[in-house]
Structure formats: C-alpha cells, structure tokens
Amino acid sequence: MTHQTLSDVYDDYELLEADDRYRLLIDLGRALEPMPDALKTDATLVRGCSAAVWVYPTTGENGRLHFLADSNAAITKGIIALVLTAVQDRTPEEIIALDIASELAPFDLKNQLSSNRTQGIPNMIALIRATAQRLLG
C-alpha cells in the first residue's frame, strides 16, 4: 500500500484557503487508522499537548516503525496525521536522519492554527525520535 507523502498533502494544502486547510487537516485525522481504546493509557499519552494525544509505536516488517495515534480533538488529530505522514513505516535510521520539523515547515502550522494547537508538536516529534533511537539501541 503506498502512503501519501507530505509533499502530496502539501500540493493540495497550498492551494487552499485557511478554512479549507483546516478541513483538510481534520480529514487527514479522520483517515488515521483507528487506535484501540486499550492503548490509550497514561503511558502512551503525549505530554504538553492542549488536547489529549496518544501515540503508540509498533515495529512492522524489516524493523520499520508504524505508529498508531489518536486525539480527542479533531484538528489535533489532523496535525498528528500530518506528523505521521512524514515518519510512518520508515526505519529507525530514516526517522533519526529526518528533520521532521523542517518537513512540516511549509505547512506553516503556527500561523494557520492557534499556538495551543501546535504547542504539542515538538513533544510528538521528540517521542517519535526517542522511539527510533531506542530501537537503534
């Protein structure tokens, strides 16, 4: 199954007005695979987000990282989906080598969304990077 890349998403995103960008992010969030409620625990909760955000890493074939994630806020879930688009099903080495924040920069989320919506992004990125680092040992 081929994943949409961040540049695919951005090609659509850059053509949209602010309200439609908002809707695009919400749609991305809706398209995330469902995260079982049993995985939404204190251990998978990302700290520092204004909404509740859960991220659960799994290791797929060839040691590639696959993340399940969810949020109780639609727009936050969309932001998570955007972050995961950059890293989903990549190897830990690829994730460590990737500057996730730079990959997200063209979306200009800080100016598109209120700061409390975006404050948790660095924590999400840190968690993803830490997971990759741990797998590399």
Defining key terms:
137 residues, mainly alpha, 52% helix, globular
Describe, in short, the structure shown.
By secondary structure, this protein is mostly helical. It has helices spanning about 5-15, 20-30, 75-85, 90-95, 100-105, 110, 115-120, 120-135; strands spanning about 55-60, 65-70.
> What is CATH's topology name?
Sufe protein. Chain: A
- In angstroms, what is the radius of gyration? 14 Å
How far apart lie the N and C ends? 29 Å
Adjacency order of strands in the biggest sheet: 1-2
Q: What summary fits the major beta sheet?
A: 2 strands, antiparallel
What does this structure look like?
This protein has 8 helices and 2 strands. It is mainly alpha-helical and 137 residues long. The protein has a single domain (6-136), classed as Sufe protein. Chain: A. The chain has a two-stranded antiparallel ribbon with strand order 1-2. β1 (53-59) and β2 form a beta hairpin. The radius of gyration is 14 Å and the shape is globular.
List the helices and strands and how they pair.
Layout: H1 6-13, H2 18-31, E1 53-59, E2 65-71, H3 74-87, H4 92-97, H5 100-104, H6 109-112, H7 115-118, H8 121-136
Antiparallel strand pairs: 1-2
